[in-house]
């Protein structure tokens, strides 16, 4: 039996737009790929009303509070911090597993969602953003962890824990710690970059998708433009 690849989104207590984009992201992927994938929404620190919202998206739900010990470093104390996406590191280790941020939308069929290899695929960053760990990441390696495709069999948790120890990370203190840790793993393995021309970051120019940076904290301008240009809303 061929196991289906898994798409996993992560959502915390973000803005109203963040939830709207998540709904659109899920709907768009299902429209494009239907039953080809399994779908899971990982959530943390949500209100009852927010939980009710994601329950209506017809995906498997995973409460990340039950997986806080899956890495040697516990999740960030600031509820909804981006590092929550790493808990747990793998849901389906025997299949391809796609990490997608709640504020990223794929609206066209794309090579990186269809032709999987043993490589890790990752979206290109508009700016190099690794915070306090910038010196640990090789020059020219610009990873945006908004979309990362992990191949079957890769023990991501072990790789993450190895680098947590190597970099002596004791807590999640910076917004970009998670992106730096992800990059530290990916740069040392076989990888393929998904360029900005394919998935736009804070831009509607991407051929296959767009990452609405800042929408989770209320920066709505690009999301509003998208709705107008795509749907005349």
Concise overview:
The chain is α/β, with parallel strands linked by helices and 233 residues long. The chain has helices at 16-33, 48-55, 156-166, 177-186, 221-231; strands at 6-11, 38-43, 60-63, 97-101, 104-106, 120-124, 143-150, 191-194, 199-201, 209-211. It is 25% helix and 20% strand.
Provide structural commentary.
This protein has 233 residues and is an alpha/beta fold. It has one domain (6-231): Spore Coat Polysaccharide Biosynthesis Protein SpsA, Chain A, CATH 3.90.550. It is 25% helix and 20% strand. It has helices at residues 16-33, 48-55, 156-166, 177-186, 221-231; strands at residues 6-11, 38-43, 60-63, 97-101, 104-106, 120-124, 143-150, 191-194, 199-201, 209-211. It has a 7-stranded mixed sheet, sandwiched between helices. Helix 2 (48-55) links the parallel strand 2 (38-43) and strand 3. The longest helix is centred in the N-terminal third of the chain and has 18 residues, at 16-33.
Descriptors for this entry?
about 230 residues; alpha/beta; Spore Coat Polysaccharide Biosynthesis Protein SpsA, Chain A; seven-stranded mixed β-sheet; three-stranded mixed β-sheet; 5 helices; about 25% helix; about 20% strand; globular
Estimated helix fraction: 10-25%
CATH architecture: Alpha-Beta Complex
Q: Describe the largest sheet.
A: 7 strands, mixed
Shape: globular
Low-confidence spans:
none
Rg from Cα: 17 Å
Share of residues in strands: 15-25%
Tally the structural domains: 1
CATH topology: Spore Coat Polysaccharide Biosynthesis Protein SpsA, Chain A
Backbone structural class: alpha/beta
Q: How many individual β-strands?
A: 10
Strand order of the largest sheet: 3-2-1-4-7-6-8
- Mean pLDDT across the residues is 94
- CATH uppermost class: Alpha Beta
Query: Number of helical segments?
Result: 5
H/E element order? EHEHEEEEEHHEEEH
Distance between the termini: 43 Å
